[in-house]
Design goal:
Oligomer: single chain
Largest sheet: none
Radius of gyration: 24 Å
């Protein structure tokens, strides 16, 4: 029994454009995570300074912060969040096999494919940014218990 031939057609310009845009978005994910990290870094540097300024404005020139565990936890969380964000911004060295576009996920020990590199790099940064954000907001929550 013979199968009928499969009809084909050339790839249209729109399809090529969509493929190009798809690969551009995959390649740009890591850059988007870097921009997000930069904004988060700005917040992580500003909030502790604003906290100290507000404390001084509320309590006047004789502002003294009672040292309770919440103070240490708040500033510890802010420091940890800052470190995590800086780690996200520091480039990580990846083992990439440029002859492979997409590697089997169970075989990453041999090296990543090109597409895998972009995805894994962005995923690595995303995990650090999410963890940093959670730790940072835990610090903000703890800071609420320092004023009293």
């Amino acid at each position: 029994m013979s199968n009928p031939p499969i009809s084909t057609r050339p790839v249209s310009e729109n399809e090529n454009l969509l493929r190009t845009k798809f690969y551009e978005s995959v390649a740009a994910q890591s850059d988007l995570m870097d921009k997000l990290s930069e904004h988060l870094l700005t917040l992580e540097l500003a909030i502790p300074g604003l906290f100290a300024t507000v404390l001084r404005l509320i309590r006047g020139d004789d502002a003294v912060l009672n040292t309770n565990p919440a103070v240490y936890i708040a500033f510890g969380c802010w420091l940890a969040a800052l470190i995590l964000t800086l780690i996200a911004l520091i480039p990580k060295k990846w083992k990439v096999d440029v002859t492979i576009l997409k590697q089997d996920p169970n075989d990453f020990s041999e090296g990543l494919g090109i597409e895998d590199f972009f995805q894994q790099s962005a995923l690595h940064k995303l995990r650090l940014i999410i963890t940093s954000s959670i730790v940072f907001f835990v610090g903000i929550f703890c800071a609420l218990f320092t004023i009293g």
